[in-house]
Design goal:
Blueprint: E1 5-9, H1 15-25, E2 30-33, H2 43-46, E3 56-59, E4 62-65, H3 67-77, H4 91-112, H5 130-143, H6 154-169, H7 176-185, H8 189-204
Parallel strand pairs: 1-2
Antiparallel strand pairs: 1-3, 3-4
Helix pairs in contact: 1-3, 1-6, 1-8, 3-6, 4-5, 4-6, 6-7
Length: about 210
């Protein structure tokens, strides 16, 4: 019997990244919805993720948190989906997956909160400056059709989600290369299905579900 696969999420969260990855994999799963001011801080869920944040997945007895880690784990747990390059060709795959999870998210978050690091202190941060992070992202998405080469991988789910979000909410500059990359990913059947499912749940939830 296949191990049960559970997604812990809220449809208005980074859980959308994990949902997209699950749809790309194509394995059956169920969703446990969590409310931001309620069940997400419950003892039961804190036993899954002490941070009290989503997403998380449980695959049999294995628990994985952090959206980038979920993408990497799922690609390895379901190799038949072909969402990770061969191990001897994973340089760009790991490079850009963890660039987005670290320097890019940090730089965008600092910018969003109006926190500007003095130029002489930027080298102390892994992200450098917002401009440097965006220029590096521009470089990454123009190297190949996909972030790690000529075919789609789990790294595209994560990097693509950051770009989609940034373009939608204005936290990323609307550079043509970002839009071209985003548009390419948003044509995927798994992305369309995952988005439709989470959008439907967003509309279904009552205000009480958020509290």
């Amino acid at each position: 019997m296949a191990e049960e696969l559970v997604l812990y999420s809220n449809p208005m969260s980074r859980g959308r990244i994990a949902r997209w990855m699950l749809e790309e994999v194509g394995a059956p799963y169920r969703v446990e919805w969590l409310a931001f001011e309620g069940s997400i801080k419950s003892p039961d869920y804190l036993a899954v993720n002490p941070m009290g944040k989503v997403p998380a997945i449980r695959h049999g007895k294995t628990v994985v948190t952090e959206a980038a880690a979920i993408c990497a784990y799922m690609a390895d747990a379901f190799p038949e989906a072909g969402l990770a390059p061969p191990t001897d060709r994973r340089g760009d795959y790991y490079r850009w997956l963890f660039f987005a999870a670290g320097p890019l998210e940090t730089a965008v978050s600092l910018k969003a909160f109006g926190m500007e690091v003095p130029k002489e202190r930027q080298r102390a941060l892994g992200c450098g400056s917002y401009e440097t992070a965006l220029d590096t992202l521009s470089f990454a998405v123009t190297l190949h059709p996909y972030i790690a080469g000529d075919r789609f991988t789990a790294a595209d789910v994560y990097v693509g989600s950051h770009i989609n979000w940034g373009l939608q909410f204005g936290s990323l500059e609307a550079r043509p290369e970002f839009k071209a990359y985003s548009d390419r990913l948003k044509e995927r059947a798994a992305f369309l299905k995952a988005t439709a499912l989470d959008d439907a749940e967003t509309h279904r939830q009552s205000p009480a579900m958020k509290g």
